[in-house]
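Input record (one chain):
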Amino acid sequence: MAFKNSKLDLSKTRERSQITDSHRDNYMGHRAKIGVVIPSTNTAVEYDFQRIIPRGVTWHTTRFLIEQTDLSDDEKFMKFLDALRSTIGGSIESLMTCKPDHVMMGMSAETFWGGVKGNDGFVDRIHEAVGEDVGLTTGANSVIAALEALGVLGGTGKNIAVITPYQPIGDKNVRLFFEDSGYEVKELVGLRCDNAGDAIALVPDHQVMDIVKQVDSDDIDAIIQVGTNLSTAGIFPVMEKMLNKPLLPINVAGMWHALRSCGINDQYDHLGRLFEEH
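The corresponding structure, as predicted from the sequence alone:
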């Protein structure tokens, strides 16, 4: 994941908060520039991010090529991850030329892989690419931070339900991560989507809503959706009010974590308790 262009000089840029005659010169990104790394097949992350554009904050996406789109079984799912690992470095190299203040990984399977230890290793590898001075949000870390903000703390006997678009091998690693983080995974439903594109992005809302009702019970403290190409940012806030417990879409958790990490504390309605209250 090392950068190829060692001669690239990113140090000379215009000061974004520059003031002339007591007036701000330019409002574009003066509070934060946030880079977002997404698979080339993903159409949901940008759709969700377009819901939130705080004043003075800019989102900057980079896409890494996904040629292996077949996810129809565990073996092909692993080939997808292997292909991802070979192309993600180039997209990060490209992203860093815009000098983001913070980088968010708009993909999640790799961040759960190997449990907490695996996520820690992934974070270390990405930090080698973006630099230690640049903040970093991963899907796994953002969900844990969001759950803690919502009062659903690991290691306190909290039960969760998880919805994924993955094959069984992906679900196994998601379960491992949450169990490593101190949660009891009482219910986990994998949709076993057979490709990395439309099979995930076009899962109908009614199917997701039926699964939420399926996994919910009185002893479930929170319901989490992972897989960034599956957007639940529209339906989860409504169901959250109906069920009176946190329902957490991974893209919402990622946006919230990235913004809060940059000191952007703007709150928003209709995106769930996380953005309304924290």
